[in-house]
Structures are given as structure tokens and as C-alpha cells.
Amino acid sequence: MSSRLNPYISFDGDARQAMEFYEQVFGGTLRMNTFAEFGMADGPQADKIMHAMLETRAASP
Questions:
Q1: CA–CA separation, 46 vs 54, rounded Å?
Q2: What is the arithmetic mean of pLDDT over 43-49?
Q3: What is the pTM of this model?
Q4: Count of other CB atoms within 10 angstroms of residue 19
Q5: Cα separation of 21 and 16, whole Å?
Q6: How far apart are CA 50 and CA 15, in angstroms?
Q7: b/e for 22-53, b at 16 or more Cβ within 10 A?
Q8: Alpha-carbon gap, residue 58 to 2, rounded angstroms
Q9: pLDDT the model gives residue 61
Q10: pLDDT of residue 15
């Protein structure tokens, strides 16, 4: 039986570091998007992470 874990968490300014840590721990493929990529290139948070997703392979039973 497989399951899917899809947590949604927030970080106060350190999302990039947190997600890179999770990638090291769990492996998989990390995708990150900045605020600039979502149309907020002129704001102070332009380089901060707005959305990130870590996809890993399902464990074998």
C-alpha cells in the first residue's frame, strides 16, 4: 500500500536553506520558484522562495 505525503509549510526567510536540507536528507528532485518568477520582480522579496516542491521516489514495500 502506498501513501502520499503533501505537507504545506511556511518558512520566515529561510525556505531555500530548509528545502535544500530536506533534499539532502530525503533525496529526490527539488524545484523552487522565487517571487520574481511569479511576477514580483521589483519587490524586496524577489529572490526569496515563494513555492518549492520536493519529489521523491516511492519506497518499495
A1: 21
A2: 92
A3: 0.78
A4: 19
A5: 9
A6: 8
A7: bbeeeeeebebebbeeeeeeeeeeeebbeebe
A8: 8
A9: 61
A10: 94
Q: What is the mean pLDDT of residues 40-45?
A: 91
The answer to whether residue 3 scores a pLDDT higher than 90 is no
- The cell numbers describing 52, all together, are 518549492
SS3 55: strand
Cell numbers placing 20: 535544500
Cβ atoms of residues 51 and 32 within 8 Å: yes
Q: Model confidence at 31, in pLDDT bands (50, 70, 90)?
A: very high
The alpha-helical segments, DSSP class H, found in 1-61 are 15-26
**Closest-CA residue to 28 (of 6, 47, 53, 48):** 53
